[in-house]
Amino acid sequence: MSTQDERLIAGAYDKILDGYPKLRPEEREQIERALRCVAMPALLREAIRLDDDQEIVRVYDRSLLRPWMDLKPEEIQRITFAQQRQMALQAFREALKTDDDELIVTVYDTNRRYLDGYALITPEERRRLAEARERLAPKENVTQWQGISVAHSCAPIAFSDSE
Fold it and tell me: Is the sign of the CA dihedral 121, 123, 124, 127 positive or negative?
């Protein structure tokens, strides 16, 4: 194929080429890439409209990004947010597998911006997070009380004879 413009390649594509034996593997790959490239902006916009992070991440391929796609800054921002939220969800789920309360709470709290209110966190995952927080709460209270008692025991109290 003489052109590198995916729009021209996709526009000239005909399904009859799918079974054409003389089409070389690199030409097939170029056609498939062109079709994905041309389809990506519409698929991304639909996924953004539906607020579907998984689909946004699935469809977006940075290597297919072209200037003619004219993605708006807020669309790029939404793509980035979806990617970060999916990574945060994956990290949270990995932490849950460890059954380490401190890790679970730390990973969630570190990614709170992405995970609070996220519909893909299951009720069971939310229950496990709450359970981890409850189990850590007594530890935090003991540490706080120890800090207070140490602070108070370090300061000597002096009484005068008149008291």
Answer: positive
